[in-house]
Write a structure and sequence with these properties.
Layout lengths: L3 E4 L2 E4 L5 H9 L1 H6 L2 H15 L11 H7 L2 H11 L11 E3 L2 E7 L2 E5 L7 H11 L3 E5 L8 H9 L2 E2 L2 E2 H5 L2 E5 L5 H10 L2 E5 L2 H8 L8 E5 L3 E6 L1 H6 L3 H13 L9 E7 L6 H13 L9 H16 L4 E4 L7 E5 L12 E7 L13 E7 L3 H13 L4 E3 L16 H4 L1 E6 L2
Parallel strand pairs: 5-6, 5-10, 6-9, 10-11, 12-13, 12-17, 13-16, 15-16, 17-18
Antiparallel strand pairs: 1-2, 1-9, 3-4, 4-19, 7-8, 14-15
Helix pairs in contact: 3-4, 12-13
Length: about 425
């Protein structure tokens, strides 16, 4: 038995082929297409309310944001943004002048998930289900990361005309060894749309798989995120510690494993605070965080190596926690994107002006946390950064908030087929 299927009851062996699961999902396609979108929104809103109350899920990493994201009003806005302002396109033809338009499901959506964020599968599953697709999801690791518990809570949800257990019949969550090329090919050839999250090697391998000619491929590849603290903000803000605390919140959530977490924060030279003083602010906020669980040997080695490199260089400085590798603040004036160490390791780099940062930006940089001062300055920076292909410029404290668009993509809009009627 090489395939594990993740269910509300846990993981169970599921044979050596995906064919039975694919056949079962395809049988549910017509049923999913008939569910009114309002009913799906109501069920997911019920799911949202249960997540923080149910002992099976309330302690999962990232659950508070997931619960908020699943609220009906948020998903309604998401659909409006993705569907020309009108989710009714999902339920049938809508008048568009003399003609009619509808948004039909792609069909079967195959998803390859990264393993860095436990709740990540839900951010692909929910848009696909709202678009009335059936879903085959491959997890990165055999450990469920709480996915079985999320499915269990969803299974218990019920609203008029729809139950969570009924919706789960349109979902199959599996794990198998990524070396099993024939199973990856089965997934790919069954898909009407593919969603791929992962690092460079995973993306290259999955996008190279054979697929059907009509298949839509949506890729969320490796990204790097940064922060910028401006001179205006530092010299005029009565409480710069609030900005620092917000950045530390972005650092702490998911332990910087998310692609949207800041790794390097650039600080404009100013007349109020030295770089070391700002580093001390970060150190104070990081010290308030609860201690991390025991680290693996590789991550610990990476942190200690970065500390040693910065401590031995006279042009650099470092502030580190006394209690092992709990957190680290590295400071310098070398205007480059530092290699991500993660695990509460932040690099502060002093610049004369944020304009020095723009040449570093490109499609690889996903999110920039901006604390620049005047709206005019933020807009000027955002124009330059997004012209360089940055996807998001957001205030610190919300860098990890999953939203639409993400990586420049409106996901629901890519998981439907727009069809026309001209009677």
């Amino acid at each position: 038995m090489s395939i594990l299927q993740i269910t509300p009851e846990g993981s169970r062996p599921s044979g050596d082929t995906l064919a039975p699961l694919i056949e079962s999902l395809n049988r549910r396609r017509s049923h999913m297409a008939e569910i009114p979108v309002d009913r799906l929104l109501a069920l997911l809103d019920e799911f949202s309310g249960r997540l923080l109350r149910d002992e099976r899920t309330r302690s999962l990493e990232g659950i508070m944001f997931l619960a908020a994201w699943l609220r009906r009003n948020n998903l309604q806005r998401l659909l409006e943004l993705n569907l020309n302002g009108n989710p009714a396109y999902l339920d049938g033809f809508v008048s568009a002048g003399r003609d009619y338009l509808a948004a039909k499901p792609q069909g079967l959506v195959a998803m390859w998930m990264a393993g860095n964020v436990p709740t990540l599968p839900m951010y692909s599953l929910v848009p696909a289900l709202l678009a009335k697709n059936v879903c085959l999801v491959k997890l990165a690791y055999p450990e469920t990361g709480g996915m079985d518990r999320l499915l269990a809570v969803l299974a218990d949800c019920r609203v008029e005309g729809l139950s969570g257990s009924e919706l789960l019949e349109a979902i199959a969550v599996v794990w198998f060894d990524y070396h099993r090329t024939e199973l990856n090919e089965q997934m790919s050839l069954a898909a009407d749309a593919k969603i791929v999250w992962g690092g460079r090697s995973a993306i290259e391998a999955i996008t190279a798989l054979p697929r059907r000619e009509h298949c839509t491929e949506i890729v969320f590849g490796p990204k790097y995120s940064i922060g910028v603290i401006g001179r205006e903000r530092l010299e005029q803000d009565a409480d710069p510690d609030g900005v620092v605390a917000a950045f530390v919140q972005d650092i702490a959530i998911f332990d910087q494993r998310a692609c949207s977490a800041p790794q390097t924060i650039f600080v404009e030279r100013n007349e109020r605070y030295s770089l070391n003083e700002i580093g001390e602010m970060f150190a104070r906020e990081l010290a308030k965080l609860p201690a991390k669980p025991a680290l693996d040997a590789y991550t610990t080695m990476q942190i200690l190596s970065a500390r040693a490199e910065w401590a031995l260089d006279e042009s650099r400085d470092v502030i580190a926690s006394d209690d092992g590798a709990n957190w680290t603040v590295c400071m310098d004036r070398d205007v480059v994107l530092k290699e991500a160490v993660q695990s509460r390791t932040i690099f502060l780099t002093e610049v004369e002006s944020w304009w020095e940062i723009i040449p570093l930006l490109g499609p690889k940089v996903q999110t920039v946390g901006i604390a620049l001062g005047r709206l005019e300055t933020s807009q000027k920076f955002a124009e330059a950064a997004t012209a360089a292909c940055v996807a998001r410029c957001v205030r610190p404290g919300i860098m990890n908030n999953y939203e639409s668009p993400w990586d420049g993509k409106l996901l629901v809009g890519q998981l439907v087929r727009w069809v026309t009627l001209k009677p």
